[in-house]
Amino acid sequence: MVNRDIELFMEGLDERPFFKKFSAEAVAQIKNMSIIRQYDKGQMLFYEQDPKNYYYFVLNGLIKLESRSYNGESIYADFITTNDFFPYGEVFGDDVYTASAEAETTAMMLMLPVDEFEAIVRSSPAILLEMYKELSQVLLYHEKRVRAVTISSATERVEQMLALWMLDMGHMKDQHVIIPYPLTIIQLAEVAGTTRETAGKVIKRLTEEERINYGRKQIEILDADYFFELIE
Description:
CATH topology of the largest domain: Jelly Rolls
Largest sheet: 4 strands, antiparallel
CATH class of the largest domain: Mainly Beta
Number of domains: 2
Shape: globular
Order of helices and strands: HHEEEEEEEEHHHEEHHEEH
Distance between the termini: 43 Å
Number of strands: 12
């Protein structure tokens, strides 16, 4: 990454949806205090229980958040995509991260020092309100996810998680919804709480029914209405 790349990211920061809630003065402060860093696929941003020194904004790429039990088993996994800020639920919260973060693709990150960013948010009731609205949407998504993982049928859980991925990461393109990330069947099985074999069978059936195209670099949702109905 060269200096011009950094300049371009910084110049376009106020056009990113998350930062439109901030005043021009606040955005200028954020640009001055922040660090831009590139992470390679598989590189850790931080580990669970590390000191919380930065908040992160994804300029480009895909990040996996994961929490593990004391015996090392994964108990929670989520994905953070381009133009997302995280960890939302920890703003003004604990001094440590409650999950680990790993780059699932090459990712360009804006790193915002915790104390300075919280001071900006705290100084503006308007920003606090917008942050609260965003957090409410995050919580609503996770409520849907909790309901999905409590379904007894593994097949239905896989379909529900595909629907939630569509809702969270999908973008409209030519009448279809594209999830533009290399999400694997193993990862789908993991978040759905089932086996790769079961998830693979569901993907095969949905492909044969012409509801999805599941590729190595993206997932194409051909029948968005089918999936929207699952999570209404």
